[in-house]
Design brief:
heterodimer; A: alpha/beta; Rossmann fold; 2 domains; 17 helices; 6% strand; B: mainly alpha; 5 helices; 0% strand; flat
C-alpha cells in the first residue's frame, strides 16, 4: 500500500514535470536564440575577413548580411516580444529609407552618408539604453544594479556624443556648416568642464543607486551633456581632419553597440560592437599616423587650437609660380611614358573622377603607363579616393598606396596632381618649421616634371604655402579640375 | 535577452559562482572579439577602407536586436515609441549599410589587358 501512495505522489509530481516540460520549451527557444546569435557572430567575423581581398569582399559581405538576418530572426522569437506591429512598421520604413539612400546616393556623397549612418547607429543604441533604463527604474521601480548602470552609462554617453558629433560631421561634409574650424574663447575650458561634469554624473549614477526622482534627473542630464559634448568636440575640427573624426565616430558607434550588449547581457551585440570599435580605432590610428599626429593629439586634438594659419611661408614668397597652358600640358602628358596621378579632395569636389579615368585611358592608348598614388588621408574619409576612382572604372591594381608608389616617382615623366595639396608638400620632409613637418607625403616632387591642376592659389587646409608649386619642375594649370581635364582630353585627341 | 542574463545568474547561483564573474565573462567576450577584430582589420588593404567602414557600420546596426525587444515588449508606451524609432534607425543602417557596401565593392575591378 505505501508503494501505491508513492505511486500517487509520483503521479502528482508529474504536474510539476509538465511545468518543467514547459520551461524546457522556453529553454528550447533560448537555445534557438543563442544558437542564432553564435552563428551571427561567426558570420560577421567571416564577413569582415572577406574584406582583406577585393575579390573575396562581396562574398564576405553576403555572409555578414546573412548573419544579420539570422540574428534578427533569432530575436523575433524572444518571449518578451508580445506585439509585432511597431517592429514591422519600423523595419519597413527603415528598409525603404536605407535602400533609397544606397541606390540613389551619388558616390561622391559617401563621406556624408557614412557620417550620418554613425548617427543612426548611435541613435538606436542610445534609445535602447534609455528605454532599458526607463523600464527598470521608472516602470518596475527597481534599483538599477551597478554593473547594468555602468553599461547603460557607457551606452548612452558614447551614443549621445556620437549622434551629435556625427550630425556635425555630416553638416560639415554636406557643407550645411562651414568646414573651417569654429573656435571661440575658452573653448578648451568649456569642453573639459562638460566632460568632467559628464564623468561625475556617470560616477554618481553607478555608485549611488536611488529611486526614479533624482537618479532619473541625473541620467537624462547626462544624456544632454553627452549630446552637447558631441557638438563641441566636432565643431573645432576642420574638413581635412575629417578622416580621423569619421573613423573615431565609427569606433564610438561600435562601442555604444557593445555597451548595449553589456547592459542586455547579449553576446552578439558585444561582439559586433567590438569588431566595429576595433575597426574604427585602427582606422583612426592609421589616419593620424598619415597626418603625423599622435593618437592622443587626435583623441584630444579637437580640444586644441586648430593649426596656426601662418605657416613657414617666408622662404617661398619671393619665388613665382609657373603656370602652363592646356596645350603644353596636353603635349607633356601625351608623350609621357610614365604618369603618376595624385588625386586629392579637389578631385572629389569637382567630381572629376570620370574625366581623370578618360585621360588615363587616353594616355595608355598612346602607349604611356598611368598609375594612381593614393595618400591615406587624401579626401574626407579613409579610402575615399579609391572608391571614387573605382566608380570611374579605374582598375584597382592601378591604385597604389603611398609605400608602394613612392619609389616610382623618380621614374615618372609627369606627376599629375589633381586637387591635392598638403599630401604632396615637400615642406613636410624638408622644413622643420612647417606645421606639417614629419607628415608622410607622396614624393611627387621627385618626378621629372609636375603638373598641378588647381582652382586658385588658395593654400591647403593648414594655410601652408606649398613649396612644390615653386619648384622649377612644377607647372600649374589653373581652373576647375573637371573642365581642365576635359580640355586636356580634347587637346590630346588632336595630337 | 534579459532572459539570457537571468539564465546566467541562475547558472551562477547554482554553481556558486560569484556575481562578479558574469560581467567579467562579458569582458572576456568583448576583449577577445576586439582582438579578433584587430587581427582581421589590420589586414584589410587601404584600397577597401571605405567599404570596410560602411560594412562595420552595417554590422553595428546589430543594435537592431536590442531595439526589436524594446519596440515589441510593451514595457510602456514611452519604451515602445523609443523602440520603434530605434528599430527604424537601426534598419536604415543595416539595409543601407549592406546595400551601399555591395554597390561599392561591385565597382572594384582588376585590370584586364585587352
Amino acid at each position: 500500500m505505501p508503494q501505491l501512495a508513492d505511486f500517487a505522489a509520483g503521479l502528482l509530481a508529474a504536474t510539476p514535470a509538465a511545468e518543467a516540460a514547459a520551461t524546457g520549451n522556453t529553454g528550447l527557444r533560448e537555445l534557438f536564440i543563442q544558437t542564432a546569435y553564435l552563428a551571427a557572430s561567426v558570420l560577421f567575423i567571416l564577413g569582415l575577413r572577406g574584406l582583406t581581398a577585393p575579390d573575396k569582399a562581396r562574398h564576405g559581405m553576403r555572409l555578414a548580411a546573412a548573419g544579420m538576418l539570422v540574428a534578427i530572426i533569432g530575436t523575433l522569437v524572444d518571449y518578451q516580444i508580445v506585439t509585432y506591429i511597431w517592429i514591422f512598421i519600423g523595419l519597413v520604413i527603415g528598409s525603404a529609407i536605407g535602400a533609397a539612400i544606397s541606390i540613389w546616393m551619388p558616390m561622391t556623397a559617401v563621406p556624408q552618408r557614412t557620417a550620418i549612418s554613425h548617427a543612426f547607429g548611435a541613435l538606436a543604441a542610445t534609445l535602447v539604453g534609455i528605454s532599458h533604463y526607463d523600464h527598470i527604474v521608472r516602470i518596475k521601480e527597481e534599483l538599477v544594479t551597478r554593473d547594468v548602470m555602468a553599461a547603460l552609462g557607457f551606452e548612452v554617453m558614447f551614443g549621445a556624443l556620437t549622434i551629435t558629433g556625427s550630425l556635425m560631421a555630416f553638416g560639415k561634409l554636406q557643407e550645411l556648416l562651414p568646414s573651417e574650424p569654429i573656435t571661440y574663447p575658452y573653448q578648451n575650458q568649456t569642453n573639459v568642464a562638460l566632460f568632467i561634469a559628464a564623468v561625475l554624473m556617470f560616477g554618481y549614477l553607478v555608485i549611488v543607486p536611488s529611486d526614479w526622482g533624482t537618479h532619473g534627473t541625473v541620467f537624462y542630464l547626462m544624456v544632454l551633456v553627452g549630446l552637447a559634448v558631441g557638438v563641441l568636440i566636432v565643431i573645432p575640427i576642420g574638413g581635412a581632419d575629417m578622416p580621423v573624426v569619421i573613423s573615431l565616430l565609427n569606433s564610438y558607434a561600435g562601442l555604444a553597440a557593445s555597451a548595449t550588449g553589456f547592459a542586455l547581457g547579449n553576446n552578439v551585440l558585444i561582439i559586433a560592437g567590438a569588431l566595429d570599435g576595433a575597426s574604427g580605432f585602427i582606422l583612426s590610428i592609421l589616419m593620424s599616423k598619415a597626418m603625423n599626429r599622435s593618437f592622443a593629439n587626435v583623441l584630444f586634438g579637437a580640444f586644441g587650437t586648430p593649426v596656426e594659419s601662418e605657416g613657414g611661408a617666408g622662404g617661398t614668397t619671393g619665388a613665382a609660380v609657373r603656370s602652363v597652358s592646356v596645350e603644353d600640358a596636353a603635349a607633356q602628358l601625351a608623350y609621357a611614358n610614365e604618369v603618376v596621378v595624385v588625386p586629392g579632395y579637389g578631385m572629389a569636389v569637382a567630381q572629376a573622377q570620370h574625366q581623370v579615368e578618360e585621360l588615363a585611358e587616353l594616355i595608355e592608348k598612346r602607349g604611356g603607363e598611368v598609375k594612381f598614388a593614393i595618400h591615406p588621408v587624401a579626401g574626407r574619409m579613409p579610402g575615399h579616393m579609391n572608391v571614387l576612382l573605382a566608380e570611374a572604372n579605374v582598375p584597382y591594381d592601378k591604385l597604389l598606396e603611398m609605400d608602394e608608389i613612392n619609389d616610382q616617382f623618380p621614374r615618372a615623366d609627369v606627376a599629375l596632381v589633381i586637387g591635392a595639396n598638403d599630401v604632396v608638400n615637400p615642406a613636410a620632409r624638408n622644413d622643420p618649421s612647417s606645421p606639417i613637418h614629419g607628415m608622410p607625403i607622396l614624393n611627387a616632387d621627385q618626378a621629372k616634371s609636375i603638373i598641378v591642376l588647381k582652382r586658385s592659389m588658395r593654400p591647403g587646409f593648414a594655410g601652408i604655402e606649398n613649396a612644390l608649386f615653386y619648384d622649377p619642375k612644377c607647372a600649374l594649370l589653373f581652373g576647375d579640375a573637371k573642365s581642365s581635364l576635359t580640355k586636356l582630353v580634347a587637346e590630346i585627341k588632336t595630337l | 535577452m534579459i532572459l539570457c542574463s537571468w539564465n546566467l545568474s541562475l547558472l551562477a547561483a547554482e554553481h556558486g559562482v560569484s556575481a562578479l564573474s558574469i560581467p567579467f565573462l562579458r569582458f572576456y567576450v568583448f576583449v577577445l572579439a576586439g582582438f579578433v577584430g584587430f587581427q582581421i582589420i589590420t589586414k584589410v588593404p587601404a584600397l577597401l577602407h571605405t567599404p570596410l567602414m560602411s560594412a562595420t557600420n552595417a554590422i553595428s546596426g546589430i543594435s537592431l536586436v536590442g531595439s526589436l525587444v524594446a519596440a515589441g515588449a510593451r514595457f510602456s508606451t514611452y519604451s515602445t515609441i523609443l523602440g520603434f524609432i530605434a528599430v527604424t534607425a537601426a534598419t536604415i543602417n543595416v539595409v543601407g549599410g549592406f546595400m551601399i557596401t555591395d554597390r561599392m565593392l561591385k565597382m572594384f575591378k582588376r585590370y584586364e589587358r585587352n
